[in-house]
Fold:
Amino acid sequence: MRETRKLVILAAGFVAVVTLALFTVSAVAGRNTGSAERAGGSSTSGDTDRTAGTAATGPRVAFYGDSYTLGTGASDPARRWSSIVSVERGWNEFNPSVNGLGFVNNRSSTPPDYDADDEVPQVIADNPDILFVTMGLNDNFSMPERADEIQDAISTDLRFLHDSLPATRIIVVEPFWYTDDRPESVETIIGWVRSAADDIGADWVPDASHWIEGHPEWMASDGLHPNDDGYAEMATRMDAELGRLGL
Structure:
């Protein structure tokens, strides 16, 4: 009888230890699920205001872009221009931007045969109220060899987004640029993007290729991307343009 009682006590202790361990693992997992990242390594604010830590009540806003919209070079994703602007306006930000992405560069698929992990179907599935298109910088590195392909992809992407999201306000931003030296392709691609934006009746944000021009102190240590100060300046300039557009 005494041996039986010992076995019961040992079994109860074992169950208690296992239960405590499972509770601890569950609690840690629960804390970690709130920091999930979207495609391209971009942390998104989802439905949360980054600064205040409260639920944002404004419209859902998606950003289709490259590293300059992903926030590469910033000390934290909250310091990229898209998140600064979104927090200021109470927008719910969805930002699946990808390093090195262009209308043809670093794409997982060729428009209009989009793979599921391509940014275009991602933002369409998100069904945002507002969509920013901030693309074109990286396509300069494929000019002039892929010029026709780039021009076709620009038109195809914007037309597909417009037709798939008829209720979404689309804002097309002049492609960003990162050095004071500007190859001829920069203006060529800007012209193609502007024309495609006009064709679908999108809002146009001009001069963005000049926003950090002449300010090496606004660049990160890699010399390719803005730092926190550079993104803050981009947010200030974007804020002024959005005010002009009534947003």
Q: What stands out?
A: Confidence is low (pLDDT under 50) at residues 1-54. Strands lie at 60-65, 92-94, 130-134, 169-173, 203-205. The radius of gyration is 23 Å.
